[in-house]
Each structure stands twice: as structure tokens, then as C-alpha cells.
Amino acid sequence: MIKVISKPVHQISLSDIESLIKDKVPEGERIEYKENLSAKKGGKDSWSSNQSRINDGARNSILEEVVAFANAFGGCLLLGIKESKSNPPCASELISIPRCNDLAERFKLIFRDCVEPEIPQLEIFAIPTCGENGVVIFRTGRSSQAPHRVKTTQNCPVRRSNRKETMSMREIQDMTLNLSRGLERLKLKLSAQSENFKAEFSRLASPENAFGLRITAAPVRNEINLNSVFRNNNIIEELRPPWVELNRKTAKECEPIPLVNLVQHHNLVPSNWRPKLRAARGDAYHQLSNMAIRYAYQEIHQDGMLESGFLSVREFNGEGLENYKRKKIPEQFPCNCEIAVSMFAQVMKWISRIRTSADTPFEEYAVEVEIVVKGGLVKFSLSGTYPYQSVVGNLSVGNHRYPLYHFKEPKEDIDLVALFEQDLWNMLGRDLGDSQGCLEIIVKNI
Q: In Å, how far are 49, 185, 301 from 129, measured between CA atoms?
């Protein structure tokens, strides 16, 4: 794993740059080095000559190298690293670029104005090495809007092995068609998961009188390829879903307020992971006489698809299975709003973990949420000691599917969680308003 490709920007340091040189990491299909901005033979580039401008040749060279990554599998260009004369070239020496932060900001504007369509997931940032001098890093994932064209050269470049090449018209057409096919595959995949979810209810003691929540996440371009997800009779540890705790801080509160999270509320931690065809699954149950009254499950597939589900019977009297079957004095199990929100937050962090493990930190994911209600209205409540929960609203019988959520950059996770919580309340006929406050996701070990 090359850390400058996979690590979040705020975690990348000079030591990560130096390790490229120490380990003599070669150029490849996802990494490129440039010692400095290109200039006319025998001359010095205008930026290094304190002219505070970028000549056209240097500008076009950087544009095409980075766009080539976006049109292929994503990658990273490091400006300020001298390469060896070996084949392929390797990182050999640190050559600091003057005023690196200013140069990074200048290139952000250049990419905005000179690439069409604009690359959706592009990071340009500097790592200072000595005062104002340092390395400028250009990093992008495989773009969901490819092919991209450089306006100033009219070229659509693409990365092949360790070099940049210009795409032919046929390749441009094929890439456009493949994008359309990829979106169609995503639609079919999510529809299949919705159909599969119907069968999950058969595991419950009373499947005709129940409710369930499914959150499915899948790569938009379908290029994540995990070699394996199950090893030594368990899920591979670095692919295990992280458990999260949500905090909320409102304008009136000085300290964050812990929300009831998934594990605390229903005490179901999917375990006993088992292999499936190119996938793995973990389950957890609350049972009476071997009949499940509620359960949770999680699945991970080698193509990067993830799913988290929670199902429960609607009514239960708590006096044993026989009385439950006769439905004497039934009490309704409400669905806690914070279970739904914390499940969504966990999936966001799980996506980030998978993207990091697969060295695809910018891979766009589509996230679908579906709530199925059977047998009558189900109450959605806020946390509290049962039966004293505060009811937010009721959801009618039927399949309720939310619009797709698109998770692109890692920093978007908390915004998507907040959006989902607002959508959940709106679906229940309520407005969350200012009570939503500022959410914080904390990954925790259990």
C-alpha cells in the first residue's frame, strides 16, 4: 500500500514522502514523479525564477498527467521528487518547489478552468519541507464522470502502465458507453438487494407482522476488487465494520451529548461470520425458543458492496413464545430513530475502511436505504426507557426507499449522516430543525 495514495490528506506527512525515496518506489499506473515544472531546454521554469507564473508547457504537462489518472484508475502526481534513470523510474531525491502552498492554490484554479467536465474528486495540496518550499501533490480517484478533456490541448489523456497516452476517439466512445453500463449495473444490483431483503423476514417468528431496515452501499463504477474478504474462519480484520458512537452538540450545549448508538440500544453485534460466494456475512439474534424476534446482519462482497440490516417483529408480549404466538396482550416494538442514524453512520465509516484497504480512497459509493413495514403502522421513537420513549412519528405499511446518497470524499460522511437523519424525520412528517445540532462520529472498539 502506497500511503500517499490511500491516506487521508490531513494524515500525510513529510515522512510519507521520504519513505517513497527510501523504499525506491517506482512509477506505475497510479503514481508519477516530477522534479519540477517543465521549462524550455537549458532554461529555468518561470515559477522557480520568482516570476510567480506558470508557463503554458508546464501547465499543460501537469493537467494531462492528472487527467490521465482520472480517466484510468486514479493516482497521484508528486511535484518535487526527482526520479532515477532506471526502468521504470523510481523516487530518488527530494527537490523542494518554491512557495509550494501558493503553487497548489494556483493549480486548483487552473484545473477548475481547464478541464471539462471538472474532475469531481481532486485533491491538490502541499507538504512543506523547508520553510515555504516543499512538494505539491495532485491526487484523484477514477472519475465517475470520465472521460475528461484538457481544454488547452484538446486531448483526452489516459494512464497506461507508467506513462500517459492520448485516447483515441473509439476509446472515448467506449468509455462513455461503459459509464452508462456501469450505472445500469448499479441499478440492477441495488434492485436485486431489495428483492433479497424480502427473504430476510422469513427468519423472524412473525414475518407478516414486522419491520426492517436495509442500508446497501455499492461502488458506482464497480472497480473495487477485494481479493478476499474471509480468511482463517473469520472476516479479514481490516475489512470488519467499525462500530461507531454518535455525539451531538447543539448551540445551547457546551458539551457533546452522546446519542444512543446501535450496539447500546439493541445489543446486537453481528458475529459468527461465515463465507458466502465471494462474500462474507455476520448475524446476531434475540430469540425465544429458537425463534427470532429481532436480528441484525452485515455483509461484505469482494466487489466492494456492503449491506447492513436490522429486522424486528412489531408486537410481542414478553411472556414466552406460546403467548406471543397467540398474540395475547401484545406490545409494540418501536424502531428507535437513533438506531437508523447510527447504522447509517457505521456504513459511512465502513465504506471509508474498505476504500482505504483497496487503495481507492476516492471511489464513489451509492448508498440506498429501504424501510419495510408489515402488519400495521410502526412507531419511530427517540431513546428512553421503554415504554417511555418519545414517539417521533409513524410509518405506514409498505416499502419505503430513500433517494440514493452519493458518498464521494471522506469528509462528506458527517454531512450525509445529517442529511439522512433529516430525511428520516421528514418521512415521518416531522422537521428535525435546530435540534439536530452538530453531529460527530467516533469510531470505537467493542
A: 19, 45, 41
Query: How far is it, in rounded angstroms, from Cα 257 to Cα 440?
Result: 10
Q: Please give the single-letter amino acid code of residue 445.
A: N
Contact status, residue 443 vs residue 243, Cβ threshold 8 Å? yes
The segments of the chain whose pLDDT lies below 70 read 1, 39-44, 50-51, 222-223, 249-266, 289, 316-333, 383-389, 434-437, 444-446
Q: pLDDT by residue (tens digit) across 221-248? A: 766 889 999 999 999 999 999 988 877 7
157 and 267 both lie in a single domain? no
Number of neighbours of residue 320 by Cβ within 10 angstroms: 10
User: Given 112, 138, 167, which residue is the final one in a domain?
Assistant: 167
Instruction: Assign residue 387 a region (left: φ > 0; alpha: ψ between -120 and 50; beta: otherwise).
Output: alpha
Radius of gyration, alpha carbons of the chain: 26
Q: Note whether 33 and 91 are within 8 A (CB).
A: yes
Q: Own/partner pairs for 324-332, CB < 8 Å, 24+ apart?
A: 324/205, 324/206, 324/288, 324/293, 325/205, 331/387, 332/378, 332/379
**What sign results for the dihedral spanned by CA atoms 420, 426, 430, 435?**
positive
User: How many Cβ atoms sit within 10 Å of the Cβ of residue 210?
Assistant: 25
CB contact at 8 A, 305 and 322:
no
Q: Is residue 157 located within the same domain as residue 29?
A: yes
CA–CA distance, 414 with 408 (Å, rounded to integer): 12
Residue 260: the pLDDT is 55
End position of a domain, from candidates 136, 167, 198: 167
Q: How far apart are CA 345 and CA 340, in angstroms?
A: 9
Instruction: Give the domain range for residue 191.
Output: 184-444
How many other C-beta atoms lie within 10 A of the C-beta of residue 76?
20
